[in-house]
Design goal:
By secondary structure, this protein is of the alpha/beta class. The protein has helices spanning 2-17, 69-74, 93-109, 124-138, 159-172, 176-192, 200-206, 235-242, 251-263, 295-305, and strands at residues 23-26, 36-40, 49-55, 78-84, 117-122, 149-153, 226-231, 269-273, 330-336, 348-354. Helix 5 (159-172) crosses helix 6.
């Protein structure tokens, strides 16, 4: 406990040194030791949007050294929240209630607009975040909000695949940590859900996606929301160090989920291979690391979904509409007011289309 408190103090000092304020917020006084989240408000104190990242089997503050998302979000008028879902493998009723309670508390405490949330999950928390989002769109009356965007990093999307890949890890018996995790996962799934073959209805209810299903499944409720799945796609490393083929990873199911969303007309569904190998803060190479999320590009994606203007980078603005543009034409967004109109009371984007060679010296 003393070590944990010491680490938390280091994080607080580190954040203070960068001019950031971090707050430990208890959302359930009856369970103050576990029912809390870490909030990092924007440097401007003007909250234009909220990014909530959920983890599992660890404390919220454990995410702080693993990513710079909160640093970049703070400079972009975004409130960042890190929260833990505890020892949860899937979106059962208790976990859904916990997520709902956390999101409701954030909206109340920070007077946050429920239409300005983007939520994500790391590792198995990503599985839960995806299922939560599906249910929020399927039955909005039960949930505090419907996210503008949802992302998962190094996450399983199909619980039946999780079951069978765990069986294969045990059978291979090659990498001890993976074997230990597989034994734990199988034990939990068998006790709470049964087997995919014996109790398929449990897996159909709890899994965000089932690869073996031919018709539309739970993923159909993500057809109108921006979805991103991040993975470390270095298969050669998996083969050489873990003896894992592509089918021992979550990547095949992740690509199939994104493909089905694209086929359903969701042009905002994206599979994001990591730009660099996953590495944890202790320097250990691991495909299940938050470093696979490029923080600068990721926050720009969030700001684009929320249509937050960034005066320092007009070209990063993503319009909420599509214009037909003839081949060879170009677009040029400019923020208003310009430097010659400092007293103009409104803020806007002037989005102009230019024909070929217009403005060129040739």
């Amino acid at each position: 406990m003393k070590v944990c408190l010491g680490l938390l103090t280091v994080f607080l000092l580190s954040l203070s040194a960068r001019g950031q304020y971090m707050e430990k917020v208890i959302y359930d006084a009856a369970d103050s030791s576990n029912a809390y989240y870490i909030a990092i408000p924007p440097a401007s104190h003007q909250i234009r949007g909220v990014l909530v990242l959920f983890c599992d089997f660890r404390s919220p503050e454990s995410l702080l050294p693993e990513t710079r998302l909160h640093n970049i979000a703070s400079a972009g008028n975004l409130l960042t929240v890190y929260a833990s879902l505890g020892p949860s493998l899937f979106a059962d009723s208790a976990t859904l209630l916990r997520m709902n309670a956390i999101l409701r508390h954030i909206t109340t405490k920070y007077s946050a607009d429920t239409a300005s949330f983007v939520i994500g999950g790391f590792d198995l928390a990503g599985t839960i975040v995806l299922r939560f989002s599906e249910l929020a769109f399927q039955d909005p009356a039960r949930f505090i909000l419907r996210p503008r965007g949802v992302f998962a990093a190094a996450s399983c999307v199909d619980l039946t695949s999780l079951y069978h890949t765990s069986e294969r890890q045990i059978k291979k018996n090659y990498f001890p940590p993976a074997v230990g995790d597989a034994r734990f996962i199988l034990d939990v799934l068998q006790k709470k859900c049964g087997t995919p073959e014996g109790q398929p209805e449990n897996y159909r209810r709890l899994s965000p996606f089932l690869h073996a299903e031919n018709g539309p499944g739970n993923e159909q409720f993500l057809d109108k929301v921006a979805v991103r799945l991040y993975y470390d796609a270095d298969i050669n490393w998996q083969l050489s160090t873990r003896r894992n083929s592509l089918y021992d990873t979550d990547i095949p199911d992740g690509t199939e989920l994104i493909n089905r969303l694209l086929l359903a007309g969701n042009s905002k569904a994206e599979f994001i291979p990591a730009k660099a190998p996953g590495v944890r803060s202790n320097g250990q190479r691991n495909p299940s690391a938050l470093s696979i999320v490029d923080e600068t590009e990721g926050i720009q994606w969030v700001k684009g979904l929320l249509n937050i203007l960034d005066p320092t980078n007009p070209k990063a603005w993503i319009p909420p509409y599509k214009w037909m543009m003839p081949e060879g034409w170009r677009g040029e967004p400019t923020y208003l007011p310009g430097p010659n109109s400092p007293r103009f009371p409104l803020k806007a984007v002037e989005d102009i289309r230019f024909p070929p060679r217009m403005g060129s010296s040739r």
